[in-house]
Design brief:
The protein is α+β, with helices and mostly antiparallel strands. About 55% of the residues lie in helices and about 15% in strands. The chain contains 13 helices and 13 strands. Strands 6, 7, 8, 9, 10, 11, 12 and 13 form an 8-stranded mixed sheet that branches. A hairpin with a 7-residue loop joins strand 4 and strand 5. The C terminus is likely disordered.
Length: about 500
């Protein structure tokens, strides 16, 4: 019983055995009862036949006595037990195989039954075990009263037909070989069915176990194939295949990330090492130190940014960054973030449009973390918007939520890349590999989800991309006013 197969197999076999045993016992009982009832009915019919003879000939001549004796003997032989005819006093009897003067039954033997038989209230009485001691065997007796004559109400005596109990219940013995044979066949069929059922459950589980073992060894291509199976085992196999697909995708992303981060780390480190080595070797003249030290400083900033992003993502996913929820104006925060990117935006000759449906939109969130979200989205918009292109930031309320959207007019995101833009280390545009680590959007999504909200992306190739996220609006907002469109932004207003 150490394997799933053996447990299922023996459980089904045991169930089959119990069912077969129960049904066999039930069938034998029903058939035996029917045989017993039929035999008792036949005994009553024979007793009534003899009682009819006694009623039709109240005065017995020699011929009738001879005929009655033959009939009594015939019934006694068929029952394999004596048949008695007793008068109402219980002291005179005709008996099968005996003369009318022998085999007398004393009154004491019938005293318990005569009142009921001679009262006229019953036409037949079954008496199991009434004369076991007299006949020295287990028997069933049937008593039928007879009258003085046809139509008379006075009971003259009783016809008693006896039968061996073993003969009445012989249906059990007759059926036993048949039932045992059929039970063995049914049990063998049950064992075959049990084996099939156990295999149908254990085989896919073993397949899943082998596939899981392969995945644990790093082979993420393992799958469990169960076409057409819709039961719980099939659902388990489908869930396992989905998990394997996700793990394979995560492994691919992990490998791409390792390669990407290795490149990101190697490039600045190579530059830093090259410039420093050139200074140490005297290849770079002292008058150029300032310029090359600036390059080294920029590369060190790239390394610091990469490490900071990795640490931020690790802390956020580990739940080690508590949120400080407080109300603040999201519109004002957007203005401050845009000011940080003013030089970069103007350097690329890009325009900015702010679309506010409400001049002040107060939300409840962690201002520092939402500033990080906005910075990542604006940074991406600046990066992917075309030279001289346009960036649009809009806010509005939708029910109890505030919606913030950042759009650009860049090349957009391919449909096959859309499902993965928030994955860690994923870069849709490989041409920008030197401008980031692919962690910004993943960090952004984690922060928004940490607030219990969601962020989505909409994009069509050639038509830019829009990232929109929601925040909880703080209380009742001012009535909506006509849409305000502000081109650029005012430094003095922030």
């Amino acid at each position: 019983m150490k394997t799933l197969f053996s447990r299922v197999f023996y459980a089904v076999v045991a169930t089959t055995f119990v069912l077969v045993l129960t049904l066999s016992t039930l069938i034998m009982g029903i058939v035996g009862d029917q045989n017993y009832s039929q035999s008792v009915r036949m005994m009553i019919e024979r007793a009534k036949e003899l009682a009819g003879i006694m009623e039709s000939t109240p005065t017995m001549n020699m011929a009738m006595q001879s005929y009655l004796g033959r009939r009594i003997n015939s019934v006694g032989e068929s029952m394999k037990a004596p048949v008695w005819i007793v008068n109402a006093s219980g002291i005179r009897v005709y008996a099968s195989g005996e003369s009318s003067t022998e085999g007398l039954i004393t009154f004491d033997e019938l005293v318990a039954y005569l009142p009921e038989l001679t009262s006229g209230k019953t036409d037949a009485l079954v008496m199991p075990g009434a004369f076991d001691k007299r006949l020295n065997m287990k028997c069933v007796s049937v008593g039928v009263p007879y009258h003085d004559g046809v139509g008379s109400a006075r009971v003259s005596g009783v016809v008693i037909v006896n039968a061996r109990l073993s003969d009445l219940t012989k249906g059990y013995g007759d059926m036993l070989p048949l039932v045992v044979g059929r039970s063995i066949v049914a049990l063998m069929a049950g064992m075959v069915i049990s084996w099939v059922i156990a295999q149908s459950i254990a085989r896919p589980v073993r397949s899943i176990a082998r596939a899981a073992h392969g995945i644990s060894k790093g082979d993420f291509s393992k799958r469990v194939h169960m076409p057409g199976r819709k039961d719980e085992v099939g659902q388990l196999a489908a869930a396992f295949n989905d998990m394997a697909t996700e793990l394979e995708g995560m492994e691919s992303v992990r490998r791409a990330f390792v390669a990407n981060v290795s490149h990101e780390l190697r490039s600045p480190m190579t530059s830093v090492q090259g410039y420093v080595q050139g200074m140490l070797d005297g290849v770079i003249p002292p008058e150029d130190y300032q310029r090359y030290l600036g390059v080294v400083n920029d590369e060190c900033k790239r390394l610091t940014s990469l490490i900071s992003d990795l640490l931020d993502l690790s802390r956020i996913e580990g739940g080690n960054v508590p949120l400080h929820i407080q109300p603040f104006d999201i519109n004002e925060l957007i203005r401050r973030v845009l000011i940080k990117y003013e030089g970069r935006i103007e350097g690329r000759h890009q325009g900015v449009t702010l679309r506010y449906r409400e001049p002040q939109l107060v939300v409840e969130a962690d201002a520092a973390r939402i500033e990080q979200v906005l910075s990542n989205l604006v940074d991406n918009a600046c990066k992917f918007a075309s030279e001289g292109g346009h960036i649009t930031v809009s806010t509005y309320t939708k029910g109890a939520e505030a919606v913030i959207a950042v759009s650009d007019d860049g090349p957009g995101i391919a449909s096959e890349d859309l499902p993965y833009v928030f994955d860690r280390f994923y870069k849709a545009d490989k041409s920008h590999s030197g401008q980031g680590t692919g962690l910004g959007l993943s960090i952004t999504q984690r922060i928004v989800e940490q607030h219990g909200q969601q962020i989505v992306v909409r994009s069509e190739p050639g038509h830019g991309a829009t990232f929109a996220f929601t925040l909880k609006a703080a209380g009742a907002q001012k009535n909506e006013i006509p849409l305000q469109v502000v081109h650029g932004f005012d430094k003095k207003r922030g």
